[in-house]
């Protein structure tokens, strides 16, 4: 097994502490995930196991993590033991008091999901009226509490031509980072892909404009997490660490019932944090080995960008073709 090229432990664990959610997002990947949640005592013991394995940070998600009643205790427990603690939230439940409580519980960064600068468009995409207004309010309260904020935007048909507006919006609301996430085809994202996903040519046009904006904008970090931009001669933020998808190389995902998967968009269980040792999974999982040592197929076999791209997003390739090694369906490079 070729594990020497990878870290001794994940840098980050993305941990779904609950799959309950107060939103009805049209692209949700976790709607069909198990609703079982680890009790607090078991969860604390599992956090200790994660720390012992050498993990440096944990990002809590879901579902909506604020629906987990013990979230503050979970965060404080993690932060007190040296983990960097962050969270992804829809922002609906964050008022001034909650923001101050999050700060006291050790949260150093909170990402708020916001998919359009237009309130009605965001509200429709997320399925909750008033969610746009609540997201903006959350950003204000979090900044007031001294927590670094970011905006997470899922790029799809509703917003791919709004780069300038989204960038201006993020700058106006004082966030540190604007994350442009590529559309995944997992869960409801698969069910609604024909309506929401972009064509390969539209993805190319989006990334050309987004990278230009990234280079020009000052005071705002614009993050693009899609390895297929390598074919444009551009790099993602993680290229200095790993090539291709970061799943199983820099991070792992833990579901609410403790199941471990390479990422939240890959529904392949490779262990369970309650019964298994994270280090053993990280070093020995056959699934992770295949993801870390992908083999080019189809047009990837002769593509000059393959060494940097490694076939693009592994989650998308698996969801739409059934094989990690197949070319990412979003890729715009034609067959030779």
Automatic annotation (TrEMBL):
Species name: Candidatus Sulfobium mesophilum
Presence of keyword Disulfide bond: no
Cofactor: [4Fe-4S] cluster
Keyword Glycoprotein: no
Superkingdom field: Bacteria
Key words, A-Z: 4Fe-4S, Iron, Iron-sulfur, Metal-binding, S-adenosyl-L-methionine
NCBIfam families: GeoRSP_rSAM, rSAM_more_4Fe4S
Domain called Radical SAM core: residue spans: 7-221
Pfam families the UniProt entry points to: Radical_SAM, SPASM
Name of the protein this chain belongs to: Radical SAM domain protein
GO molecular function: 4 iron, 4 sulfur cluster binding; catalytic activity; metal ion binding
InterPro entries: 4Fe4S-binding_SPASM_dom (IPR023885), Aldolase_TIM (IPR013785), Elp3/MiaA/NifB-like_rSAM (IPR006638), GeoRSP_rSAM (IPR027570), PqqE-like (IPR017200), Radical_SAM_PqqE_MftC-like (IPR050377), rSAM (IPR007197), rSAM_sf (IPR058240)
